[in-house]
Write a structure and sequence with these properties.
Length: about 475
């Protein structure tokens, strides 16, 4: 623990030194007029805000169908208000969990606490930086489209930078027009940014599904992803990522072929299994099969559950887990939109949002990659269609691009829906509360039961927004700090 804490302290010292050097450089540019030449300014002391007019003409053209974008903004608003409340609830639950059940694992390093490509070991510099820039442009373009759809002018687009790393982007509106805009229109504008990120993530998932249909497994045989300790496979010398070629001389084709071959045996039978190791060498192993029924019974499975799973006494058990076919890696990313996902359209649509959220843990599980190297090695581009044009390397490039773009869009979308200022969720929370109190005022006026002054509504909504932002900030700080206490 002391070693981990020392490493964290060293990481923090390095980060603080780099930020200090960047701050000195910004102050120098500010004094000699360099920032004025760049139409840039320094915000929060050490963040560079660079403004530009690139994209404003395109924004004006795209935002022409005003009615369409207003409908889009209304849909975005409903999605974002629901997501904002969900994010706030999850933060509250995380805080309560941290108070009642403090983590006992080693705290993360300083670099793991910041979502900066290259600095965070789970976010690769190349893919991460590319995806962040595209996602930030998507986010701010969403804001700009709804601002123009409601007649608000955009003065500039810009980028927030910490050194060479992009921290964020912004669409700079005419602030007087923003504050004078009707509450509903302003809420649509705030919601459009994170909603566009979430919609873009869904489009990326569809693209991954299309790419999954352009690859095939380079081998027809299944492979082993993990081994059961003291199981027959491990004791015989089988290794993770071994490809199972034959069982007692019969070729094994796919998962169904493996099940068909295994059904011919019983527990305690001895079989010869030919495998191909990760290094390409082939070996024939002598494996004593275990008892699948007893194995799961020892794990605590009830007899009723075993019966429901169609597991009977003396069923053969090789002693492996995660047996999969060669397309497993890309199928895991594409989820319900992989052509090998067997379900009807309704199930796919219902499962898609769940899959988008669960896929966020992939870089954490795989240490910053979308697929294991062996999973990529087992893929081969199809001879026809896009696969035939791009080849295996091109398909894998597109898979990684759309995966990281989807991942960053989800991260950016939900982070901006945290109900605290200066995030979009904080502005939405304030205006949502203002709208709720205004509705209460109308009810009271109509029924003559109470009369709420408009200035009181403004005061309460502003005060509640500030206090909730402060409370969420303290909760977030506690969640981050508790592993170090």
């Amino acid at each position: 623990m002391d070693g981990a804490w020392g490493s964290v302290q060293a990481d923090w010292k390095l980060l603080l030194l780099l930020v200090l050097l960047w701050y000195i450089l910004l102050r120098t540019w500010e004094r000699n007029g360099t920032l004025d030449k760049w139409n840039a300014s320094r915000v929060f002391g050490f963040v560079l805000m660079v403004r530009g007019t690139y994209g404003l003409k395109m924004l004006e053209k795209i935002s022409k169908p005003r009615r369409f974008w207003r409908i889009y903004g209304e849909i975005s608003l409903w999605i974002c208000v629901g997501s904002m409340l969900l994010v706030g609830l999850l933060m509250g639950l995380a805080f309560i969990t941290a108070v009642l059940y403090p983590p006992t694992t080693d705290p993360p390093s300083a670099s793991e606490l910041v979502a900066i490509p290259g600095l965070n070991p789970m976010i690769p510099l190349g893919w991460g930086a590319m995806a962040f820039i595209v996602a930030l442009v998507i986010h701010e373009f969403g804001h700009g489209l709804l601002a123009r759809a409601h007649g608000m002018r955009i003065r500039a687009f810009g980028l927030l930078q910490l050194g060479p790393l992009p921290l964020g982007a912004f669409a700079e509106p005419q602030y007087e027009e923003l504050h004078r805009a009707p509450r509903r229109e302003r809420m649509r504008m705030f919601a459009a940014g994170p909603a566009t990120n979430l919609f873009a993530a869904f489009v990326c998932l569809l693209m991954l599904g299309g790419l999954a249909g352009q690859v095939v497994s380079s081998t027809p045989h299944p492979h082993v992803r993990g081994l059961i300790v003291d199981g027959g496979a491990e004791e015989a010398g089988m290794q993770p990522w071994d490809v199972i070629l034959t069982i007692n001389g019969s070729e094994v084709l796919g998962l169904e072929g493996f099940r068909d071959e295994m059904n011919a045996f019983r527990a305690n039978d001895t079989v010869l299994i030919e495998v191909q190791h990760e290094n390409g060498e082939q070996e024939t192993l002598t494996v004593v099969l275990g008892d699948k029924y007893l194995y799961h019974q020892n794990l605590g499975w009830s007899e009723a559950y075993l019966e429901a799973s169609e597991i009977e006494p003396e069923d053969p058990f090789l002693g492996v887990n995660g047996l999969a076919e060669g397309t497993q890696g890309i199928d895991r990313l594409a989820g319900p939109f992989s052509p090998r996902f067997e379900a009807n359209l309704l199930v796919k649509i219902v499962y898609a949002p769940i899959h988008i959220l669960t896929i966020m843990v992939v870089p954490l599980q795989l240490q910053g990659v979308s697929m294991y190297p062996m999973e990529e090695a087992m893929l081969s581009a199809a001879d026809e269609g896009i696969g035939g044009v791009l080849g295996t390397g091109g398909i894998l490039f597109m898979v990684n691009f759309f995966f990281w773009l989807m991942w960053v869009n989800i991260l950016l979308g939900f982070t901006n829906l945290i109900p605290m200022v200066p995030f979009d969720g904080g502005h939405l929370f304030k205006d949502t509360l203002h709208g709720t109190l205004s509705a209460v005022k109308k009810v009271g006026k109509k029924t003559k039961l109470w009369n709420i002054h408009p200035m009181w509504i403004d005061h309460i909504s502003s005060k509640a927004s500030s206090l909730s932002s402060l409370a969420l900030l303290m909760m977030l700080a506690f969640i981050i700090a508790v592993p170090y206490l």
